[in-house]
Amino acid sequence: MPIRPGITSKLFFAILLTCVVIALAMAAAMRTSFNQGFLGYLNEQEEQRLETLRPTLASAYAQHGNWDFLRHNPRRWFSLIRPPGMPASEGSPGRQRPAPPESDLTGLSLRVSLLDAQKNLVIGNPRLSPDAKLKTIEVDGQTVGWVALVPFQQVSTGAALRFQAQQLKSSYLIGGIAILLAALVAWLLARMFLAPLRHIAAATHRLTTGDYATRVEVASRDELGQLAEDFNHLALTLGKNEKLRRAFMADVSHELRTPLAVLKGELEALQDGVRPLTPAAILSLQSEVATLGKLIDDLYELSLSDAGALSYRKSQTDILDVLRMAADAFRERFAQREIALEMDIPTRQAAFCHADPDRLRQLFANLLENAARYTDAGGKLVITAALEQRTIKLEFQDTKPGVPDDMLPHLFERFFRGEQSRSRSTGGAGLGLAICRNIVESHQGTIAASASPLGGLRITVTLPLANGVTS
Fold this sequence. Notes:
The protein has 9 helices and 12 strands. It is of the alpha+beta class and 471 residues long. It has 3 domains: 189 residues, no CATH class; 84 residues, Signal transduction histidine kinase, dimerisation/phosphotransfer (DHp) domain (Helix Hairpins, Orthogonal Bundle), CATH 1.10.287; 156 residues, Heat Shock Protein 90 (2-Layer Sandwich). The strands form 3 sheets. It has a 5-stranded mixed β-sheet with strand order 6-8-9-11-10. Helix 7 packs parallel to helix 8. The two termini are 82 Å apart. About 6% of the residues have low confidence.
C-alpha cells in the first residue's frame, strides 16, 4: 500500500514550492531587468560617444571640402573616431596606454558608419539595420553627412561578459540562499502550525474512545488556541452529557421498576390466594398503573419538548384566568393535605398573552402538584401576580421543607429532587419542573427557583404579555 504524505509534508512542500517559485520569478525578473538596464546603459554611453564624433567629423569635412579623403582609408577613419587622449599606436615602451571609455569596450568603432548627405555609405560598418541611430553632421548650417550607429543588442566583449557573469553569479547565489531560507521557514511554520493540530487530533481520538477527561493545552490566543478552548469545552460538555445520560437511564429504570415491582407483588399475592380480590386490591393495582402511566406520559412529553416537537396552539389567552381555574381545581387536594392555598392576584384585570391555554394549564398544574407533594401538612402556598406593562411575574411560594441553595439551580433537571424530604416516597418522578421549564421557554418566558421567605421554595415565572395589561 503506497504511503500517503501527511499534512505536515503537504504544508511543508506547499510553502517551500511557493517560496521557490517566488525566488525563481524574482531571479528571472532581476536577470531580465539587469540585461535590459545594462544594455540600455551601454547604448546610452555609445550615444554620448557618438555626440563627440559629430564636431570632429564636421571639422574634417570643412578642412577637406568633401568625404573623399576617407573613402577606402580605414586607418584615417579609425584615427578620427578614436577616443580623445588615446594614441594611434601602442605608445612608447614602458608607458601605460590609457583605458578606452566604456562605450568603446562594446566595439563602438566597429558598429559606427559615415554616410554622405544623400545617406550613401562613405566608410564604416556596411550592415546598417533599419533601427540604426542617425546623427546629422552640419557645416555652416548645411547637412553634409550622417553618422550612423548600429544599436547594441547583446554583451559580446570580454569585460562586459565578465561583468554580466558576475552579476548572474550573484543572482544565483542570492536565489540559492533564498531557497534555503524558504525551506527553513517552511519547516518551522509546518511544525509550529501543525504541532497543536496533532495534539488536538490525538485528544480527539481519545475522546472518541470515551475518555471525556481528555484536555489539550491552550498555548496561544490565536485561532489554534481558540480551537483548543473549543475542544476542551466540547469534552467538558460531552462528559456532562454522558453523566446525565447515565443518571437518566438509572432514574428511568428505577422509576419504572418501583411500580412494576409493586404490581408484580400484588398480582402474585392475588394469584397465590394470599390476598383476596377485593375492591381495595383492585384500587391499589389501578394506583400503580396510574403512576406508571403518568411516568410514561411525562417522559413522552419531555422528549417531545426537548426535540421541539411538542404541539402548541397559541392564541390570545388571559393568563390570570387560566391560573384561577387551575388553582380552583387543586383546592380540594390542598385541603386534603391540610395546606392552605392563598392567592394575591388582580381580580378586575386581564393579562393577555399569545400562548397555548392547555400548556399553561399544564404548567400551573405541575407547579401546584409540586407544592402539594413537597409541602408539610399545616403549611401553605401563596400565589402572587405582578403586572407590568409588557410582562407578568407569577410567584409560587410554599412553606417548609426548603431546598439548599446549592441545589436550587438543578431543580429543573429531570429526576432531580432537592433533599430526602422531597423524595420518591411522596410519588412523582422529578419530571414536572423539567416540563415546566420547556413550556415556559417555548412561550419566550423565564422560570427560576429561589428560597422562599416562608421557609420553603419559591418558583418565579415571567411571561411576556401580548398587548400590555388591560382592565
